[in-house]
Design goal:
Blueprint lengths: L1 H8 L12 H5 L9 H25 L1 H4 L9 H4 L4 H19 L4 H19 L7 H21 L5 H29 L12 H24 L1 H7 L8 H18 L5 H7 L1 H19 L1
Helix pairs in contact: 3-6, 3-7, 3-8, 7-8, 8-9, 9-10, 10-12, 12-14
C-alpha cells in the first residue's frame, strides 16, 4: 500500500520544484554554504504541496482518467487506492507543506498558499477553459521561481520571468497535443478543455512559442547588462543547447508522439538529459569559474 501511496504522490514530479533553486543559480550565489538549507526546505514544502494537489486532481478527474490509456493505471483510477485514503494522503501532504513553510517566513507561506489555492481553482474550475488552463500551469512555475527568489533574497529578473513563462506554455501545449491524439484514437475526451484546442492551433502555437522562447534566450545571452554581470561574452554559446533541446522536444511531440508526460519524457530521453546537463554545466562554468 505504501508503494501505491508514493505512486499517487507522483514523487518523480518533484523535479519540477527544482525551479526554486533557479534564482540563486542564475544570480551566481548558489553554494552549499550560503543558505541552501532554506532552499531545500522550500523545495520540500512545495513538493508536498504539489503532491497534495496531484492527489486532489486525480480524485477530481477519476472518471476521465479511467478513459485514458495511461492514466487509467493511476492508483485511484485503477482502484488500488480508495478515494478516502487518497483524501487523507492529500490532507497529510498539505499539512507537511504548510508546517514546513513556517520555517521560512510569512511571505513564502503566502506564495505557497497562493500556489495551493490557484491549483484548487484549476482542478475544480479553470482546467476546463482552453488556454486559461495553460496560463494557470505557467503561473504555478512562476510561483515556484518567486518562492525561490524570496528565500534566497534575490529579485526575479525580467528574463527569468519571460523564459519560465514561455517554456511552461510550450510544454503545456505539447501535453495538450497528446490529449488530442488520444481523442482522435479512442474517441474519448480526457479533459474538458480539449474541445477548445485543435491540432492545427496547437502546432502553430508551439512553433510561435518556441520561436519567441529562443529569441528571448538569445536576447538574454547578448544583453549588455547580463554580460557585464556574469563577466563573460561567451554566454551566447549556451543557446545551442536551448535550440537543439526545443527541436528535440518538438521531434518527440510530432514524430514520436510521446509528449503526454513531460517529466517522464525529460527524465527518460537520453538526448534531452545530455542537453540539459550540458546547458547546466556550461552555464555553471560561466557563472562560477
Amino acid at each position: 500500500m505504501i508503494a501505491h501511496i508514493l505512486k499517487l504522490m507522483r514523487l518523480h514530479h518533484w523535479v519540477k520544484n527544482l525551479m526554486i533553486f533557479l534564482p540563486a543559480f542564475f544570480a551566481g550565489v548558489f553554494s552549499f554554504d550560503s543558505g541552501v538549507s532554506n532552499l531545500i526546505i522550500a523545495f520540500v514544502s512545495f513538493s508536498f504541496a504539489a503532491s497534495g494537489i496531484y492527489v486532489v486532481n486525480d480524485i477530481r478527474d477519476l472518471q476521465f482518467d479511467k478513459l485514458h490509456p495511461q492514466k487509467k493505471l493511476r492508483p485511484i483510477a485503477s482502484g488500488v487506492v480508495s478515494e478516502m485514503k487518497a483524501k487523507l494522503t492529500a490532507v497529510g501532504c498539505f499539512v507537511v507543506a504548510i508546517v514546513a513553510s513556517f520555517l521560512l517566513g510569512s511571505e513564502f507561506r503566502i506564495i505557497l498558499i497562493s500556489y495551493i489555492i490557484l491549483n484548487f481553482l484549476y482542478s475544480y474550475f479553470l482546467k476546463s477553459i482552453a488556454v486559461v488552463d495553460l496560463l494557470i500551469i505557467a503561473s504555478g512555475f512562476l510561483l515556484r521561481v518567486y518562492a525561490g527568489g524570496f528565500v534566497a533574497d534575490i529579485p526575479i529578473s525580467k528574463w527569468l520571468f519571460l523564459l519560465v513563462f514561455e517554456l511552461s506554455i510550450f510544454i503545456g501545449l505539447a501535453k495538450r497535443r497528446d490529449d488530442l491524439l488520444v481523442l482522435e484514437n479512442t474517441g474519448e475526451a480526457v479533459r474538458k478543455s480539449i474541445s477548445g484546442y485543435s491540432l492545427k492551433f496547437i502546432d502553430f502555437a508551439m512553433v510561435f512559442i518556441a520561436s519567441i522562447t529562443v529569441l528571448s534566450y538569445v536576447m538574454y545571452t547578448l544583453s549588455e547588462e547580463v554580460v557585464a554581470r556574469i563577466g563573460t561574452d561567451i554566454l551566447h554559446w549556451s543557446a545551442i543547447f536551448v535550440i537543439v533541446g526545443i527541436l528535440r522536444y518538438m521531434q518527440i511531440t510530432w514524430v514520436a508522439k510521446k509528449s503526454g508526460s513531460p517529466v517522464r519524457l525529460i527524465l527518460s530521453d537520453a538526448a534531452l538529459i545530455v542537453l540539459v546537463l550540458g546547458w547546466i554545466s556550461f552555464f555553471a562554468y560561466c557563472l562560477y569559474f
